[in-house]
Every structure is written in structure tokens, then in C-alpha cells.
Amino acid sequence: MDGMGCIRMKNMTDIKETKDNGAGLKLSRRLSALADWVPEGARFADIGTDHALLPVFLARNGKISYAVAGDVHAGPVDAAKRQVTEAGVEAIVSVRLGDGMTVLSPGEVDTVAIAGMGGSLMARILDQAGERMKGVGTLVLSPHVAEDAVRRWLVEHHFVLDREMLLEEDGVIYTLMRAVLESDPGKSLIRNKQLYDESLLSPGMLKVSATLLYEMGPLLLKQPTDAFHRKWEQEIAKRERVILQLNHASAPEAAEKAKEWEEDVREIREVLSCLPAEKRSSN
């Protein structure tokens, strides 16, 4: 990060708490937050639905007009069908077995949620959707690793982040993001250029590299919370363990790779040290 410096000026754990639909179904704080971001009256799809907790909750609360709950595994699909039947929302929620967004027809939904998987897989699912993305204007996402892969996919496909959140639950820090489609490619280019501007944190910091903006999240960097700092201190610790392993490796390329990781850690530490303390708050 050359020139940067400070200027001194989805699983069963999701069934437990917080939101209740009045019929005994409760969501974890993570799923509750995702539910809050689904637009009113949405035609909704939950990809990798597991037990269909999210679409059932939304249907029971009258927030969505229609939903597809898709999963690639037969066991969760059977469990989802039971959940839908018990909740009495069969007329609203359609449970389907299939890989990724193959469970959808083009134009069938306008809002898609994907949570509880890695960002690279999430981006691949979106990329392979093809015509099934037709009509989709809102994406509600929660990748548990490789968040940068998701943010890059969004930019490349004219989606613009409008919300990001870190939420800590049971010792795990989850990343949540929502993006909306900008139908005019020119406008999406301008909006994303502004969003990922390397002078995002000025005047408190001279420059944040584009790579780090995609990794850390532009909206999260603007309003860093205590959870944000904890997440990235944990990430530093992970990277330092990798560096230690590389320094003990005999392969000739290991030393060069270790230097790259050391530079990553230095950049992250510098960003954390430069973030305005007055913006830190707990989730």
C-alpha cells in the first residue's frame, strides 16, 4: 500500500433467538438481520435454504409475496418442505431441489438471498445463474470467507452495495451485505468508482489500496465497529500463522510468498491504526 499513512488530524444454530413469527419459529440474529434487508412485497429466493427458515419467516410475517427455497441436498429439502407445511405457507413458498440458482426460472424472482457459504462459491453460483438473474434487482448475501470475491462480482455485474454489516453471534463474526442493481452500466461504473475510491478514508488516511477495499468492505471501513476491529485482528493472527509456516518451508518460492503476506499484514495494521476511533461502536 505505497504512499498510505496516517495524517494526525445457515445451519441449526440459526434456530434460536430474537425474532419470532408468532408461530414458534425464531431466527438467529444473523438471519433476522438478513430478513430486515429483504424489500417489502419481494418475490424472493433463498439459495442454499437448508430448513427454509428465512422464507418461512418472511412469508408468515407477510413481508414477501412469493418465495423459492432451493437447496442442492435432499435432506435439507425434505426438512424445508416439512417446515413450510407446518407453517401453512405452501401457497407462498415453493421448495425445490437443485444446484444453486438452477431452481429458478428467468424473471421468477426479484430478490435473492445466499448465506452460509464461501464467497468464491457464492460468486460462482451468481455467475452461473445466467438468464435466471433476469429481473433480480436486490441481492442479500452473507459470505463467511472470501468476501472480496463477492464484492468484485457485484461490481463486474453492475450491482452497487448499499448496506454492509458485521454481526457477532456465538463467537463468530458474520459479514452481511446487500446490493442493488444499477440498470444503467454507466451509472453503476460511476457509483462503484466512488464506492471503491482509494481515498475513501481521507483526510484521515492518504490511501487505501483497491485490494484492501474489496477485502475489508468500503461501507464497513467508513463506519468501523468493534466487531470490525476484532475480525481483522483475527485475520492478522491467521496470516501470521501462515507466514510462520512459510518461513519454515524449504520450497524456494516460500520466502517470496512470506514477504507478500507480511506486506498484507503491515497494510491491514496501518489501516486499523488510522481508522477514526470516534466511529467505533459495538453491534
From TrEMBL:
Domain of life of the native organism: Bacteria
Keyword Transferase listed: yes
Keyword annotations of the record: Methyltransferase, Transferase
GO BP annotations, alphabetical order: methylation
Gene3D superfamilies: 1.10.287.1890, Vaccinia Virus protein VP39
Pfam families assigned to the protein according to its UniProt record, in alphabetical order: Methyltransf_18
Molecular function GO labels: tRNA (adenine(22)-N1)-methyltransferase activity
InterPro entries from the UniProt entry: SAM-dependent_MTases_sf (IPR029063), TrmK (IPR006901)
Protein name, entry field: SAM-dependent methyltransferase
Species this chain originates from: Cohnella luojiensis
